[in-house]
Amino acid sequence: MKIFSATTFILILIGALMLAGVLWRESAHKLGPIENLNSMQGADAPLFLPKDGEPRHRLHQFNAWQLATIPHAHRFDAPMGTENGGLTFNAQKFWKMNDEQGGHHTGDDLDGLGGMDSDLGDPVFAAADGLVVYSGEPSPGWGKVLILAHRSADRRWLQSMYAGLLRIDVPMGKLVGRGQRIGLVGTANGDDPAHLHFELRESRGVEIGSAYSMFAMNRLDPEETLAELRGAPADRLSSSLLPIALDKKGMWNTLEIEGAEKLGELQE
């Protein structure tokens, strides 16, 4: 009985020491300042998200106002090759297992027919009418990354991600039209041969994540989803009207008023 009591005492002591160690480490951990927690409705950042001046691309949920600015996208097209996706091939398909990277591929790697760096600097086009919700370089391995947010015809909140870019041609917060050039094919800072890593996701927030994962989470098969949301016959080619509608100098926005001295003043 004495042996059992001593053993029990030792186990309790070890457990208490482990618990004390955990509590000490937690108390020593310093949390950075947070963006806005005036109320649960008014919080514009997740709890305890550090405010370091950088875009909150790792974990950020859109608020109601941001969701309202995301345009409806009634048609989706391939983002590379031409405005309608010609002259490209899928070098690494969605969810293909890559043992070297230790996970499944989370998007499609679109490449020019010549392979290697033959498509370096080729244009990348917006897959659908959308809003730029991320534009930057989250880490050296990703290179330059652009994310557009869309609301599909079936009322899903979708995002298209364009990674490894050589150059980004559109800033944060800009509305872009399907088929509009948004960047150039790059090499992710020389880590890979030139190609476009293209992802489609269903999400109401922005998180960059990894190009390889064991869990699909909110990722969609880009090829299948584009076909599903095509919104037009495969052989029908047309451009989006959104860039034309947003062009203040475009003929559709020109107002001819008798006696106006400067048409430009009316367009401001």
From TrEMBL:
One of its GO terms (molecular function) is hydrolase activity. Its EC number is 3.4.-.-. Keywords: Hydrolase. It comes from the Bacteria. Residues 119-203 form the M23ase beta-sheet core domain. Gene3D superfamilies: Glucose Permease (Domain IIA). The keyword Hydrolase applies. PANTHER family: MUREIN HYDROLASE ACTIVATOR ENVC, PEPTIDASE-RELATED. This is M23 family metallopeptidase. It comes from Haloferula chungangensis.
